[in-house]
Specification:
693 residues, alpha+beta, five-stranded antiparallel sheet, 26 helices, 21 strands, 53% helix, 13% strand, elongated
């Protein structure tokens, strides 16, 4: 102790676990009390309490004015030490809640454990931030790049910038500009990430260097405001408190967190009390000496004292103090830090920084068209005309459709129709088809016969030619089998969406533009599922070249038609006709693009040098194509865990993005309307420049 101007000051070695408490866990040797210190991963050692749980200037440096350590020393001498002594001398049984509450709260918040656990938590979280920035997928999750929510990080940055720079333009213009900027940021993110990560990591390193000082100053300010926060004390006062003794020859250790708590009434799953919220815990335990613990709980739950030392060890961050160095104490010492480690893991898990995990529910294999030991398909098969019916064809088709990865979809398939003319078979069943639709189903289709409000039910329509090719072992049977499985894969999409996303979510009222986007997203997403589950596996260079030619032709047709939608509106000012034409062709465009994305299992390497990508780049959709594949792949990987429509709504927004490249801007001035604007030639050129930049 020091003296200054007639007042007594604390020394520079300041105890964050007061010696008044430590002495209850030691043995008097001469004029000192000696305790055993069990540190994590080290051999125990014996030391005087003068050197244990103390640090130079832990609370404050010496000062002419009353310091924080002076205030704590005064609190110890006047209140804390007498209270600890009284608790130790209390007989086993019920005690006053007020004294117990104040002692537990003060001791638990003043310790180095608070600083150490906060520092570990901050370091762990920032470390996971840094790790998340090491890959495109996890960085997108961390920075909320692909979120359409208005409170997402990217959304807020974009809208703040637009309001600052373009606050004077009409709201509809700001909305369109914001959507465009958001999409472009998503498309260019892989190229932006290295520079962005470097800047962010520099800031993280600076912050990591500042964390210890920030935590020390924050902890000190909190203690200076209140030695025992009133709300915490009030919560503990409502508990029933009692003294529980150890059964000889057992003894209690003192954890560096001082008090532990549980969220369960049976005292299971004990955690450091200072890491629990006031609303969480139902019981609290703190040792007051080697032979007694202070127990507070709601109710009269019994506690097993013999299990407490392991809990005390687990809840310690670095060490615990003990009266003895014996085998049982050494045995529990191996658990030091376990609870804090779990706390840090849970803390990091509250924010998902990892890329979506691969869904291994279905491993897609090349189709077995010659034989299979799998459970045969029992879905009814109809041939139209019936004269085409063949036992060999049925057997081949049943084998093909019995693949494990297709079974989720086949559960919702009522009938498989093998027909010479798919369009005719659909018309016989009352489906109205225009020329475009007739052409789009020429090679087969998956027709949804009931909507999500009554549950999904599908019919698969396959061509007689493709089924015959598989049954006869024709040289084209691999391609034919892929066409057939493509439709079963589409059924898997409908089954996955129907079974995972609640009906009330899918059928809820939503703005008309969002509903239209969702409808189109359902169509092209099913084609993506069909392509991923078609069973082609790794395709050869020749097969990819043929796919590229076919895809390029389909995309070019749609590109021409989408361009004509804008011109039609400029010439005729018929918004309904132009909008219908635009939506019809953007759906066909997206279906073709989705099938292309799926052809190589979601990998973009081959497409980057393809003919198709060159045509897309000509209309500023080259970067978009890779983003489209990423969004579709995310939906596919999450197919077994979907619970909301967020992924589908995000995919539906691609409708607007594609239309921008053709000078068509759609919006919703009211939830019941879709408004269409078209850009003049100069505006279109400026927009294309923005979409290429």
């Amino acid at each position: 102790m020091l003296a200054s101007k007639g007042r007594t000051l604390a020394g520079r070695k300041q105890h964050y676990i007061p010696q008044a408490l430590q002495r209850g866990f030691g043995q008097v040797v001469g004029d000192a009390t000696r305790v055993f210190v069990f540190k994590k991963g080290q051999q125990p050692y014996r030391s005087s309490t003068k050197g244990v749980a103390a640090e130079r200037d832990f609370y404050s440096e010496p000062s002419e004015e009353p310091s924080l350590d002076d205030k704590i020393t005064s609190y110890e001498n006047l209140i804390l030490a007498p209270a600890i002594a009284a608790l130790r001398e209390s007989p086993v049984g019920m005690i006053d809640a007020s004294a117990a509450a104040a002692v537990v709260v003060h001791l638990s918040i003043r310790s180095a454990f608070v600083r150490g656990s906060l520092s570990a938590a901050a370091t762990e979280v920032l470390g996971n931030f840094a790790f998340a920035l090491s890959s495109n997928e996890s960085a997108r999750v961390l920075l909320e790049i692909d979120s359409l929510e208005s409170d997402s990080m990217l959304f807020q940055v974009i809208w703040d910038g637009i309001l600052e720079r373009f606050g004077s333009i009409p709201e509809s213009g700001r909305t369109a500009l914001g959507k465009l900027a958001h999409f472009r940021a998503r498309e260019k993110f892989p190229q932006m990430l290295p520079d962005l990560a470097q800047v962010v990591l520099q800031q993280f390193r600076l912050l990591l260097d500042q964390i210890p000082e920030l935590i020390v100053s924050g902890h000190s300010r909190a203690l200076d405001r209140d030695m025992a926060p009133l709300m915490r004390v009030k919560r503990l006062k409502t508990m029933s408190w009692r003294i529980v003794a150890a059964e000889p020859p057992n003894h209690f250790v003192l954890p560096d967190c001082l008090a532990i708590g549980s969220t369960k009434a049976d005292f299971s799953s004990m955690e450091p009390y200072s890491l629990l919220n006031d609303e969480e815990f139902t019981c609290v335990v703190m040792p007051v000496c080697a032979s007694k613990v202070l127990v507070g709980c709601f109710g009269t739950t019994e506690i097993d004292p013999s299990l407490l030392n392991r809990a005390f060890a687990k809840c310690s961050l670095d060490y615990f103090i003990s009266l003895r160095d014996d085998p049982s104490t050494a045995e529990v010492a191996q658990f030091i830090g376990d609870s804090v480690s779990h706390f840090l893991d849970d803390l990091v898990k509250t924010r998902t920084f990892d890329a979506p995990k691969k869904n291994c529910q279905f491993e897609v294999q090349p189709p077995d068209v010659k034989g299979s030991a799998q459970e045969p398909l029992r879905t009814p098969i109809r041939f139209e005309p019936s004269s085409r019916k063949s036992g060999k064809a049925q057997a081949a088709l049943r084998r093909l459709m019995s693949a494990p990865e297709l079974q989720t979809g086949m559960l919702v398939v009522e009938t498989i129709v093998v027909t010479d003319n798919v369009a005719r078979s659909l018309r016989v069943r009352g489906q109205a088809l225009n020329e475009y639709t007739s052409q789009s189903v020429r090679l087969g289709t998956c027709h949804v016969s009931r909507g999500t409000d009554q549950g999904i039910s599908c019919q698969l329509f396959l061509t007689t030619e493709s089924v015959r090719s598989v049954a006869s072992g024709h040289p084209d049977m691999r391609t034919a089998a892929a066409l057939i499985r493509h439709q079963a894969g589409r059924a898997t999409y409908y089954a996955a969406v129907a079974s995972q996303i609640p009906t009330e979510v899918l059928s809820r009222q939503r703005p008309l533009l969002e509903a239209a986007g969702l409808h189109i997203a359902t169509s092209f997403s099913s084609h993506y599922f069909g392509g991923r589950l078609s069973g082609l596996g790794t395709i050869s260079a020749e097969e990819f070249a043929a796919t590229d030619i076919h895809c390029c032709e389909a995309l070019l047709r749609c590109i021409r038609e989408l361009g004509s939608a804008r011109l039609h509106f400029i010439e005729n000012r018929d918004a309904d006709a132009a909008l219908g034409h635009a939506f019809l062709n953007v759906e066909q465009f997206l279906c073709a693009a989705a099938t292309a994305c799926a052809t190589v299992g979601g990998s973009m390497e081959r497409w980057r040098t393809s003919k198709s990508i060159k045509e897309l780049e000509a209309v500023s959709l080259g970067d978009w194509f890779e983003l489209f594949a990423l969004d579709l792949g995310r939906l596919f990987e999450k197919r077994a865990s979907l619970s909301t429509d967020k992924e589908l709504v995000l995919l539906g927004s691609h409708v607007e993005r594609v239309l921008w490249s053709f000078g068509v801007v759609v919006s919703s001035p009211t939830p019941e309307q879709i408004w269409m604007d078209v850009l003049e030639d100069s505006q279109l050129e400026s927009t294309l420049v923005m979409l290429r930049s």
